[in-house]
Amino acid sequence: MVTVWGRPTSLNTQRVLWALADSDVPYELILASATMGPNGHISKGGAAFGIVNTPAYRAMNPNGTVPTIDDDGFILWESNAILMWLALKRAPEVLSGGDPRHLARALQWMSWTNERLEPLLHTLVMELVRLPEAERCSQGREGPRGDPRSARGARGSSCPPALRHRRPLHHW
Fold it and tell me: What pTM was estimated for this model as a whole?
């Protein structure tokens, strides 16, 4: 049995849960997060699941992030490392077809996703969902009914790097 600490709304935890389910590996999910809880994100006033800031969790994962797994006493954190472990130890035929070239190609795309795609997705979610309207960066976003004039005079340097000098999110 693999124990997973994480939350089902975490993209990183979802990767691990998906691999475990596809591989028919039994697992237990322990809800853990510093930012999300049963009532959503802490920015909306809810309480976090917690656990990740406890000394016991930090002994397993000094970053205090999710997911973390315990696979028969082997503790591992970072979703891509966990996926590689599962592909090598638990389900090589299912997760990589038993071919090291397939595993290398999967690692290539996982690395690209972490470095190129996910930082932009994180900014997008924060700007459009989690941050209160007053705290959002207005640069590069169109105003009401697509009026691009509202983006002029934006806060510029206060915007996250992913939103600086970008085209509007809604480009008609």
Answer: 0.75
